[in-house]
Structures are given as C-alpha cells and as structure tokens.
Design goal:
With 117 residues, the protein is α+β, with helices and mostly antiparallel strands. It has two domains: 1-34; 35-114, Sandwich (Immunoglobulin-like), CATH 2.60.40.10. It is built from one helix and eight strands. A hairpin with a 2-residue loop joins strand 4 (65-68) and strand 5 (71-73).
C-alpha cells in the first residue's frame, strides 16, 4: 500500500473510533439530559371513584426526590412507588412532583372525582 492509502486508512479509523466514543457517551448521558420522568399507572387522570381510599401506583426515573401533594414519598430500587391517599368528596387534584440531582423538575397532576352515593 502506498503512504497516502495508509494515511487515509488511519484517518478513517480514528474518525470511526471518535464517532463511536461520542455516540456511546451521548447514549450513557441521556438519563442526565432527559431529566426526571414520572409515569403514573393507576389511577387514570379523570377517573371517578366511589370509595375514599385509593392507591397511586407508578414509576419515577432519574430522580433524587419525589413528593405526593407536597409530602415526600419513596421508591424502590427500580423507581416504582405505591402510595395510598384519601379523596375528599367531589373534585380532587393530586400532584406528584420530582426533582433530579441537578435541580431539573417535573410535575404530574391527576384530576380525580369521588362520588358519594
């Protein structure tokens, strides 16, 4: 092989290696970039209940702290949480808010209705 072919091959190999390293770094940093995420599995937003005690079930990712109606709650090692709350008669707003270690925040609001018979 000639010198120019080897030079092109080296430059190509270094470029490919740099692209792989940058791509892998972005992939690993995605949790930091995306910020905190709250997924609520139950109850569904807008649900109507006839009992006062309900359970909120969900998962929080990339968080340092999570609160349910301004009260600290805790997750398991995978980020899942289950908390019981009492609904007031009529229209209720339940607020979940989370913050990551860099100060980014997110909030979820559930609007629930308690019908008394």
């Amino acid at each position: 092989m000639s010198r120019s072919a080897l030079s092109i091959l080296r430059i190509s190999a270094v470029t490919l290696l740099a692209i792989i390293i940058i791509g892998y770094s972005i992939f690993q940093a995605w949790k930091l970039i995306s910020g905190p995420i709250i997924d609520v599995y139950t109850p569904q937003n807008g649900a109507t209940y006839s009992q006062t005690l309900i359970e909120i079930d969900g998962r929080a990712r990339n968080i340092a702290y999570i609160n349910l109606d301004d009260r600290r709650i805790f997750t398991d090692k995978d980020g899942y949480f289950k908390e019981k709350i009492l609904l007031s008669p009529g229209y209720n707003i339940v607020k979940l808010d989370a913050r990551d270690k860099f100060g980014a925040t997110t909030e979820k609001k559930l609007e629930l209705v308690l019908k008394e018979y």
